[in-house]
């Protein structure tokens, strides 16, 4: 029997989630939530750009959707600029007995040591009250810096440092709020954007560092270490999200490091350009315009370069797809999981079961 699923949003990630739910043999799309009044009443297939109707009309009525008693909500709404409010939304779903997979707030990927224990307890209480499970994930924070590096460490004899890197050109990344307000691209260098307010990097990506530490069984020094390097534009140019005048912030490199006795042991590093020619001295992808690089230093030294690109678009398009599909493909595991807040450490192996082209009709039962 298929699991009944609601998609929460139809934006840059949500539209791909709708396509993924429709393609998944174990899932049935039964509802879609939208925030834009102009989208209310429109078919999910149209909103996802599928070129065909799915027979599911979008609505902004939360009660109407919860009344459908779905097995799971795939929540891909923007949360970066409304963290507290979105936690309230997720808590409401859990209390209503609905399992949730969500792309944010990213701090909930592994909130221990980041959020107050009282807040985590409230989420857990809501989950247990409704008998539901919440899993927050994606690609980064998510697979590229939890399952992938932890799997690599299973090959190690000695681990000196685990470094998870995103190396990307964001010039084609369409998220104006994220690019200008959160990152600060196109803003004066003396302006402090939200992301670079002291402590915010450690909160946003500290969950990554702390989850890896938990997976490796180590206790980190407190607090986590934040390192930031910003570079100004050498000319005027534009990205799809923001204009970048000469002299304003155009490139950003940051690290969030977990140390043991003052030595870096787990490092999350982002190298973000808004033009491919910037900062040639910084790490570059092995191919294409973006990649994730995992480096495990020790015995042996190991490195994996993980890149992706869309069939009909660049790495920023495929970045939305992999974020959406990490959530969609996790739905069966999350529905089957015990009630509560489930991290990547709690779930079994999530695969693309049932998605092999032309083979869906030959899917065999899971063991």
Automatic annotation (TrEMBL):
One of its GO terms (molecular function) is 4-hydroxy-tetrahydrodipicolinate reductase. SUPFAM superfamilies: NAD(P)-binding Rossmann-fold domains (SSF51735). Signal peptide: none annotated. Residues 10-74 form the Dihydrodipicolinate reductase N-terminal domain. InterPro entries: DAP_DH_C, DapB_N, NAD(P)-bd_dom_sf. Residues 145-351 form the 2,4-diaminopentanoate dehydrogenase C-terminal domain. This is Uncharacterized protein.
């Amino acid at each position: 029997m298929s699991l009944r699923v609601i998609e929460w949003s139809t934006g840059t990630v949500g539209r791909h989630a709708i396509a993924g739910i429709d393609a998944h043999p174990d899932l049935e799309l039964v509802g879609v939530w939208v925030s834009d009044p102009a989208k209310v009443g429109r078919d999910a297939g149209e909103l996802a750009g599928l070129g065909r109707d799915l027979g599911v009309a979008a609505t902004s009525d939360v009660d109407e959707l919860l009344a459908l008693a779905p097995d799971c909500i795939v929540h891909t709404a923007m949360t970066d600029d409304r963290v507290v409010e979105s936690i309230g939304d997720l808590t409401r779903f859990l209390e209503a007995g609905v399992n949730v997979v969500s792309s944010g707030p990213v701090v909930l990927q592994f909130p221990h040591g980041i959020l107050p224990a009282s807040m985590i307890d409230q989420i857990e209480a809501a989950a247990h009250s409704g008998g539901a499970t919440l899993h927050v994930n994606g690609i980064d924070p998510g697979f590229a810096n939890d399952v992938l590096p932890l799997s690599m460490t299973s090959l190690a004899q000695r681990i000196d440092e685990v470094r998870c890197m995103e190396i990307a050109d964001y010039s084609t990344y369409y998220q104006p709020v994220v690019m200008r307000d959160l990152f600060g691209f196109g803003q004066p260098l003396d302006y402090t954007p939200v992301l670079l307010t002291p402590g915010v990097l450690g909160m946003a990506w500290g969950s990554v560092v702390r989850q890896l530490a938990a997976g490796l069984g180590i206790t980190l020094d407190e607090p986590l270490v934040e390192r930031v390097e910003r570079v100004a534009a050498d000319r005027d140019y534009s990205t799809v999200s923001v204009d970048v005048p000469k002299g304003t912030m155009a490139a950003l490199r940051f690290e969030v490091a977990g140390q043991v006795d003052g030595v870096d042991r787990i490092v999350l590093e982002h190298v973000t350009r808004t033009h491919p020619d910037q900062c040639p001295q910084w790490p570059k992808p092995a191919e294409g315009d973006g990649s994730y690089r995992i480096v495990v230093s020790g015995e042996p030294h190991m490195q994996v370069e993980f890149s992706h690109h869309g069939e009909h678009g660049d790495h920023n398009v495929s970045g939305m797809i992999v974020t959406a599909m990490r959530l969609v493909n996790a739905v069966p595991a999350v529905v089957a999981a015990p009630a509560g807040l489930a991290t990547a450490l709690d779930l079994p192996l999530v695969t693309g079961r049932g998605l092999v082209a032309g083979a869906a009709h030959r899917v065999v039962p899971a063991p």
